[in-house]
Amino acid sequence: MVSWSLDACRACGAVRAIVVAVPAGREQMLFEGMARGAHPDTLDVLNHLGDHHPDKQIAKAARTAAHKASSRQG
After folding, report:
1. In sequence order, what are the residues at sequence separation of 6 or more whose Cβ sits closer than 8 angstroms to the Cβ of residue 5?
2. Predicted confidence band of residue 17 (pLDDT cuts 50, 70, 90)
């Protein structure tokens, strides 16, 4: 598990921009798309959002997508 804060993340600006730009209620769609992608940092980003996002529903959607991404990799 990655143990860094969103503020310390080297891509925190990009992650924040993506999360803020997604219309409310569409986060799960974004996370599912990320989980199907092949970027090597996707799992870390989804896990981080799942651990640190202040909205519990969004955090849960990120954790669910991280689990799916992990299953696809493994």
Report:
1. 52
2. confident
Question: Which residue type, as a one-letter code, is found at position 69?
Answer: A
* Nearest residue to 42 (alpha-carbon basis) of 32, 29, 52: 32
Would the pTM of this model clear 0.70, i.e. be above it? yes
- CA 6/CA 53 separation, integer angstroms: 9
pLDDT band at 67 (very low <50, low <70, confident <90, very high): very high
Range of the domain at 17: 12-73
Q: How many domains does the chain have?
A: 1
53, 70 in Cβ contact below 8 A? no
| Lookup: tokens for 52 | 């640190």
Residue 3 placed within a domain: no
